[in-house]
Amino acid sequence: MLEITPIPVLSDNYTWLIHHPQSTAAVVVDPGEAAPVAHALESLGLTLSAILITHHHGDHVAGIAGLRDDAIPVYGPADSDIPHLTQPLKHGDRITPGGLGVEFEVIAVPGHTLDHIAYLGDASLFAGDALFAGGCGRMFEGTPAPMQGYLAKLRALPPATRVYCGHEYTQANLAFARAVEPENTALQARAERVHEQRQRGAITLPSTIGEERATNPFMRWDSDAVRRHAGEHAGRTPEGPADVFAILRDWKDNF
Q1: Phi/psi of residue 10, each to 5°?
Q2: What is the C-alpha separation between 48 and 40, in angstroms, rounded?
Q3: Which of 28, 102, 112, 203 could hold 137 in an S-S bridge, CB 3.0 to 4.6 Å?
Q4: Residues designated catalytic
Q5: Residues whose CB is less than 8 angstroms from the CB of residue 43 and which lie 6 or more positions away in sequence, other chains included
Q6: The sheet that has 13-19: what strands, in order across it?
Q7: d(CA 241, CA 164)
Q8: What gap in Å lies between CA 205 and CA 164, rounded to an integer?
């Protein structure tokens, strides 16, 4: 199994450092800053071998220039303005980034941004801002139906799949989730656990696909309670899964 280390950057972002325990090569996902990543690599005795980018937002790419050299490939979505990109990717591509010995599948997850991709390998999903613990990214460039569609594909992954997302938003996301589904006992227990973790300053990630299925309203469009509360909030009956998602996304944006 790969070793995955969170590197806190900026105010609430995480860059993920991935390496194989039998190698000193390391891959980083979404370096929002260079200095904390360089410090983590040095302290762990690792050498950067590749950079993976999920989407073009500055808080996920700003550290590239300070970390890369001509020998370090930068993977990321094609048709994007990501700086220093050397390995453009599209949905369905498979890559084995330097030194890990593990193949990653590239999954298109448009919605937060149209170029957004996620990386799936070693039972781990590096989701960027497409899927959060207890939530999902704000819909800046996409539309509800495709965004709900990719969440359905992610929801179908094995329940034990670990979810590594780009921000420490879990506590706020679960506060909204409880407004949507106050009777969900699994959600209540998760919110209490996350509150205790944040009181200690502990990271709340990774989550799992199984945990998101049980407690994340954006993955629970077919729950009777979620549909009912979404309809009550909107003042109408939702017309289907994408409409439930659209109502929830608008509700969360104004929560």
Answers
A1: 55, -145
A2: 10
A3: 112
A4: 55, 57, 59-60, 112, 129, 167
A5: none
A6: 3-9, 13-19, 25-29, 47-52, 74-77, 87-89
A7: 25
A8: 7
For 129-147, give one letter per residue: b (16+ CB within 10 A) or e: bbbbbbbbbebeebebebb
Residues in the chain: 255
For 219, which DSSP code? G
End-to-end Cα spacing for the chain: 39
Strands 135-136 and 162-165: unpaired
| List of residues 6+ apart from 207 with CB closer than 8 A | 133, 134, 162, 163, 165, 170
Distance CA 242, CA 254 (A): 19
- Determine whether 104 is exposed, middle or buried from the number of CB atoms within 10 Å of its CB (0-12, 13-18, 19+): buried
